Amino acid sequence: MQLDDLYRQVIMDHYKNPRNKGKFEEGAITVDLNNPTCGDKISLQLKVNNGVVEDARYTGDGCSISMSSASMMTAAVKGKTLEQAKDMIARFSELMLGKDVRFDDYEDIEALSGVNKFPARIKCATLSWNALRKVIDEEQFNKL
Amino acid sequence: MIRDIREQFPILQQEINGHPLVYLDSAATSQKPRVVIDALQHYYEWDNSNVHRGVHTLGSRATDAYEGAREKVARFINAKSTQEIIFTRGTTTSLNLVAASYARAICREGDEIVITPMEHHSNLIPWQQVAKATGATLKYITLQPDGSVDLAEVEKTVTAQTKIVSIAHVSNVMGVVNPVKQIAEIAHRHGAIMVVDGAQSTPHMKVNVQDLDSDFYAFSSHKMCGPTGIGVLYGKKALLEAMDPVEFGGEMIDEVGLYDSTWKELPWKFEGGTPIIAGAVGLGAAIDFLSEIGLDHIERHEKEIAAYAMNRLSELEGVTLYGPLKREVGLITFNLGEVHPHDVATVLDASGIAVRAGHHCCQPLMRWLKVNSTVRASFYLYNTEDDIDRLVSALIQTKEYFGHAT
To answer: Is the distance from CB of A125 to CB of A63 less than 8 angstroms?
Structure first.
């Protein structure tokens, strides 16, 4: 069990210097999610225009893995279409399963591959991605 | 002696992530000694049968073992009679049974149910639900700044309208021992009944339900060296007799007609279906095990370990301790600077140390403490000062690790 596999420099950097932290005043879809087992919380906001994520922000309270994952996810999803975002969610799930997945669109995410060796922490890493999935579902449902 | 005790727990003889296991999560569930594991195996290998129905030899053995366990429980907590010992799935089910059967039948609009903000969700949500269903008011006793319960506050909160007071004997977060005997006296003076959540007390101290004068007392087997899936609801006979069962069928039946039926007498009235027979056997073995060591010895040992741990942890820079400084039981909740409890637990686990990180099923208490979650180290009869030393040095490493990483 190598702690450095989990707590990579990139992860700690996102934890200490979060990207996209904050709240939009208006014009965003918001989803609040929590991890009931540990109390970690995230509130994710996306501004979507013509099926493209124009901007993303989050607030939350949680461990280094859940918060850095949120920081990376919001950075990665900006400028992506909803379909591209869905593809990222699928790739992230594979990453958590220990598969060799590339994130050429935002390489930092690959640093989370070590979480796979710490099964108890996978829920932390996927919290913000589950929130993203809910935002997309809501956005697409509203368009129906 | 402690070495002899440790040797009886097979699970403690292993390495986790290359280090000897230090198990500091007994408040979540305790480890099981060899005698309990053997009792479960013996039951299934030799005696397995349903209870109270077979006229064959195995049926008698299983029935004797099951009812024998009930007698052990009755003696263990000094109940007046085995009729007052209901086997349930655990503390949560026991408290829910009181809420569903007793409380829902007696509570009306204007009545009050009194609890504290330190209650485990199991002793909070059932009362929330009763309040919603009956129109009764849920009232909270204000905690002291250190997290303890002051009797003056209890006097202020309990009134003539109070029907039920329900409080944890020992907090699963702060290790506070609540004065439940005195609180029961206040409750009774106002005509209310006293319910005690004994999940964190029964494994660690001598419990005497008659002396405490509690009307209901709930606890679980798995926190006191017994198997999971079985627990106890003690209730005063007169109260239990007046209550209706909440589960129907199987073992609780007396006579069934097409449109009406009758129930067995206590305690079987509340034990629908095939009961948790092996669980009861395992709980009986756990009671024998704990009684042989002596609850007074266990209590003293834990107090010593906790005092040692409090001293060592308070010397550690950056550690915030929650709850009263003086520990009556072996349970310590803390945070380590800015490092999130989840991250602390992962680094400790890498050193073979098992602690709990989270809200401990006490979200209202977390809000009261103004934190999202904490780290909890909880001790039992098999923990040593060496375990605490290992914890402290791993915490120092955690601080260094996250210090470097930032």
So the answer is: no
Q: Please give the interface size between A and B, counted as residue pairs whose CB atoms are below 8 Å apart.
A: 54
On whether both B187 and B323 belong to a single domain, the answer is: no
Q: What is the pLDDT of residue B406?
A: 41
Does any domain span residue B406?
Answer: no
* Phi, psi (rounded to 5 degrees) for B215: -80, -35
What ipTM score was computed for the predicted complex, to two decimals? Answer: 0.89
Q: Does A119 touch chain B (CB under 8 A)?
A: no
Identify all chain B residues contacting A118, using CB atoms and an 8 Å cutoff: 346
Cβ count within 10 A of residue B51: 21
Give the whole-angstrom CA distance, residue B156 versus residue B149: 12
Residue of B nearest to A67 (CA): B340
Give yes or no: residues B55 and B100 share one domain. Answer: yes
- Find the domain containing B63 and state its range: 36-292
With CB atoms and an 8 Å threshold, state whether A64 touches B340: yes
pTM of the entire structure?
A: 0.94
Q: B235, B263, B292: which is the final residue of a domain?
A: B292
Q: Is B254 helix (H, G, I), strand (E, B) or coil?
A: strand
Least confident of A38-42, B290-294, B339-343: A38-42
B362 catalytically annotated: no
Percent of chain A with pLDDT over 70: 99
Domains and CATH numbers, chain A: 3-143 (3.90.1010.10)
pLDDT at B325 (0 to 100): 87
Q: Residue B405 has what pLDDT?
A: 43
Domains contained in chain B, number: 2
The reply to whether B47 and B133 lie within a common domain is: yes
Residue B155: exposure state from Cβ atoms within 10 A (0-12, 13-18, ≥19): middle
Does A64 reach chain B within 8 Å, measured CB to CB? yes
